[in-house]
C-alpha cells in the first residue's frame, strides 16, 4: 500500500518539475486502473526531498513519474513508502 511519496529535482532544474504527475497502476503499461497520486504544482526545494502524503493510498504494483512537456524528465530521485 502506498502512503507517501518523496521526490527530489535535479540540481538547478526544480522549476522543470512543475506540472509533473506521479501515477500508480496494477497494469505494467498503465492502460487501465491508473490513479494519480500527486501533481507537482510548485517548484520543489533543490537539494532536498519533498515528502507528500498520498490519501487515500492503495496497493499498486507499478508507479511512474510523467514529466511535463519540455522538461526533459529532470527528476533526480523518487521514493515510494507504505
Quick description:
The chain has 82 residues and is mainly β. It has strands at residues 2-9, 21-25, 35-39, 50-58, 62-66, 75-81.
β-strand number:
6
Strand adjacency order, main sheet: 4-1-6
**Radius of gyration in whole Å, from Cα?**
12 Å
Question: pLDDT below 50 for ≥5 consecutive residues: which ranges?
Answer: none
Helix share, percent: under 10%
Q: How confident is the prediction overall: mean pLDDT?
A: 95
Helix count, per DSSP?
A: 0
Q: What is the makeup of the main sheet?
A: 3 strands, antiparallel
- Rounded to the nearest angstrom, the distance between the terminal CA atoms is 5 Å
Q: Which term fits the overall shape?
A: globular
Order of helices and strands: EEEEEE
Q: Beta fraction of the residues? A: over 45%
Assign the structural class, choosing from mainly alpha, mainly beta, alpha/beta, alpha+beta, or little secondary structure: mainly beta
Amino acid at each position: 500500500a502506498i502512503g507517501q511519496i518523496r521526490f527530489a529535482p535535479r540540481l538547478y532544474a526544480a522549476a522543470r518539475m512543475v506540472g509533473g504527475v506521479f501515477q500508480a497502476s496494477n497494469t505494467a503499461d498503465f492502460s487501465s486502473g491508473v490513479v494519480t497520486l500527486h501533481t507537482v504544482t510548485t517548484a520543489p526545494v533543490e537539494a532536498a526531498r519533498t515528502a507528500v502524503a498520498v490519501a487515500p493510498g492503495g496497493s499498486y504494483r507499478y508507479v511512474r513519474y510523467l514529466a511535463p512537456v519540455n522538461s526533459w524528465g529532470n527528476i533526480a530521485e523518487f521514493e515510494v513508502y507504505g
